[in-house]
Amino acid sequence: MDKQQEFVLRTVEERDIRFVRLWFTDVLGVLKSVAIAPAELENAFSEGIGFDGSAVEGLTRVYEADMIARPDPTTFQVLPWRGERQGAARMFCDIETPDGASALSDPRNVLKRTLDKASEKGFTFYTHPEIEFYLFESLEHGKLPVPVDQAGYFDNVPRGAAHSFRRDAITMLEAMGISVEFSHHEIGPGQNEIDLRYADALTMADNIMTFRSVIKEVALQQGVFASFMPKPLAGSPGSGMHTHLSLFEGDRNAFYEPGSEYDLSVTARQFAAGLLKHAPEITLITNQYVNSYKRLWGGSEAPSYVCWGSNNRSALVRIPVHKPGKSQSTRIEYRGLDSAANPYLAFSVMLAAGLKGIEEGYELPPGAEDDVWELSESERKAMGYEPLPQSLSAAIAAMERSELVAETLGERVFDFVLRNKRAEWQAYREQVTPYELETNLPVL
Fold this sequence. Notes:
Blueprint: H1 3-14, E1 17-25, E2 31-36, H2 41-47, E3 49-52, E4 66-71, E5 77-78, E6 87-96, H3 107-120, E7 124-137, H4 161-175, E8 180-185, E9 191-196, E10 199-200, H5 201-221, E11 224-227, E12 241-249, E13 252-253, H6 266-286, H7 292-296, E14 305-306, E15 308-309, E16 317-318, E17 332-334, H8 343-360, H9 377-382, E18 386-387, H10 392-400, H11 403-409, H12 411-431, H13 434-439
Parallel strand pairs: 1-6, 15-16
Antiparallel strand pairs: 1-2, 3-4, 4-6, 5-6, 7-9, 7-10, 7-11, 7-12, 8-9, 12-13, 12-17, 14-18, 16-17
Helix pairs in contact: 3-8, 4-5, 6-8, 6-10, 8-11, 10-12, 11-12
EC number: 6.3.1.-
Cofactor: Mg(2+)
Domain GS catalytic: 107-444
């Protein structure tokens, strides 16, 4: 037993932990959990916990259902909402087959494989997400959701529901070792944003899954409803997860080159070019629901066209310039990702696209400094700004042709995502009117 496992066992005993929850996600990014007693921890570390993998979306086929969940002791954290006495803790798991091999369809393993490819090139991949979500009054069946306030961007609402909510949520996140950089009210009524501090991509994906659980728990405590739906209100902005990306070589930021335009290195420019070139084919992963396309094509600074800019929030890829000349701050912001994505798979395809740009030496096209939404269609076409997929159906078609995504996800995950999304699109078409299909109206 290693030192980290010993630490977990000792902490469980000292903190009077009654249940240890083993967490993992299905292919769609839905959190799964099985609770074990402290007495079972040593066996879980040495042998894992068996479960029926065929009952989990996309994990395995029915004739090879036996799977093993093996907890990662480095992810151990006490769950603060369960109280001080006879509390609960959680650990994320890696999913394995009975012979000890990593499950090909485990999203956490997909990300690990992609990170290993980056590591072979000497890179460590860091991410920093800005996570947006809405707070609604308690939902009533058959009625439209009512936001908890009518505030706007950066509004300070004394004793407001959102202000208290963010304070309690951040306190809980930090109690679990998740550092928060900023929080504020967003543009939409009842819309909030909490930004997590930079971390390596695997840690951050774990943190995002924990973040969603914390937000839901605090919402339940306060009698409100938290939604990560990309576009819950037709007349208000959607909820994105704008994500800042960087590659480091040891302690050196590989994206930084002093004296170059925007301090961007050749590596950074090639990485950004990779994101742009492969954006349409990775969109089904970064924006996986019918509702995701209501956000992408609903205006309000949502990116709809494949372009980049240094200070342009209508562009898909943005180069932040808040701290020019500071090497550690040079980064790329990808604005297409929405808050409902599976972070393990989304980070995998984004990293793979960027690495492809570096490997193939892609050239970064000229940047967009105009509001892309204000340009005419002919102007966008003349500037080479191709549209992102405009519907789930179009995103499916783009991914079907993608060797990059197929290789990154692996055959099982790739095939499952396509099957699942084809079924989702068909179900959507059967439930809405032709007018709704034509006008792309949001549906709850």
